[in-house]
TrEMBL record:
Organism: Ideonella livida
Primary subcellular site in the record, as a coarse category: membrane
Bilayer topology annotation: Single-pass membrane protein
Annotated localization: Cell inner membrane
UniProt lineage: Bacteria, Pseudomonadati, Pseudomonadota, Betaproteobacteria, Burkholderiales
Keyword Transmembrane helix: yes
Leader peptide range in chain numbering: none
Keywords, sorted A to Z: Cell inner membrane, Cell membrane, Membrane, Methylation, Transmembrane, Transmembrane helix
Transmembrane segment boundaries: 20-42
PANTHER family the UniProt entry points to: TYPE II SECRETION SYSTEM PROTEIN J, TYPE II SECRETION SYSTEM PROTEIN J-RELATED
InterPro entries on file: N_methyl_site, Pilin-like, T2SS_protein_J
GO CC aspect terms: plasma membrane
GO BP terms: protein secretion by the type II secretion system
Biased composition (Low complexity): 177-191
Protein's name in the database: Prepilin-type N-terminal cleavage/methylation domain-containing protein
Length: 242
């Protein structure tokens, strides 16, 4: 039976024994690598957060803009002629219109003030005098600013154009080119003899003046808004046209 021999020593006799573990240089190198990885990870997370915030802000802005444009189109598609007030007027500073409402007629004003697009709507009116008062109120911004709603911010400028019959082109809403002369046809008097915003009765009844000269409704309205992201152009063909 062979004799058992002890295992050879791990190091030569007399050689210095090496301490177990990492040296200081190795620890410093590892810490440096970990710091770089952590920095890269933080930058990646920060980039993701910024991208998420930007996408959220862009989505909110797009949603707000869509809501504003939808309200603009709703107002214009509900235009209602009245023999005692203009139906649609734009003076460069504000656009005013008369629209239908389930409870009567409304005067609506759109205007740009201090970089904000504002909208004001009168309470629904069921009589001629109330509609005329609402229209007169809509002519004075000082009376509206406490009740008007800021619907869109960051608007540096706006333009409104009309597409009129016979022009075959868009023109400034304040221009009279291509507007045919004429008067608004006065609807037939109700059988009951009562007046309404659409039918105030015969000229002179109840102290009302004769209906004013008509502003024939254009075939289309173009809205241009100068926004930080660019110029938004929206065209709308009106159902109520001459």
């Amino acid at each position: 039976m062979p004799a058992l021999r002890p295992p050879p020593p791990a190091h030569a006799p007399g050689a210095p024994r090496r301490a177990a573990g990492f040296t200081l240089v190795e620890v410093l190198v590892a810490l440096f690598i970990l710091s770089i990885v952590a920095l890269l990870s933080w930058r990646g997370v920060d980039g993701l957060v910024r991208a998420r915030d930007a996408a959220s802000a862009h989505g909110d802005a797009a949603l707000r803009l869509g809501t504003v444009v939808g309200q603009w189109e709703a107002d214009l598609t509900q235009l209602q002629r009245s023999a005692t007030t203009p139906t649609l007027r734009h003076d460069g500073a504000a656009l005013r219109l008369v629209r239908r409402h389930p409870q009567g007629l409304q005067v609506v004003v759109w205007t740009l003030q201090d970089g904000r697009l504002w909208r004001w709507a009168s309470p629904p009116q069921t009589d001629t005098a109330g509609l005329q008062r609402a229209w007169q109120t809509g002519l004075q911004w000082t009376l509206l600013q406490g009740q008007a709603l800021p619907v869109l911010e960051g608007v540096s400028a706006w333009q409104v154009y009309y597409y009129r019959s016979g022009d075959n082109a868009w023109s400034n809403a304040q221009s009279s080119a291509g507007r045919p002369a004429g008067r608004v046809p006065v609807p037939a008097r109700p059988a009951s003899g009562a007046s309404s915003p659409d039918n105030p009765g015969e000229p002179g009844d109840d102290g009302e003046d004769e209906p004013a000269e008509a502003d024939l409704i254009p075939s289309g309205v173009r809205l241009q808004l100068s926004l930080p992201a660019g110029v938004l152009t929206r065209d709308l063909m009106l159902p109520l046209a001459p």
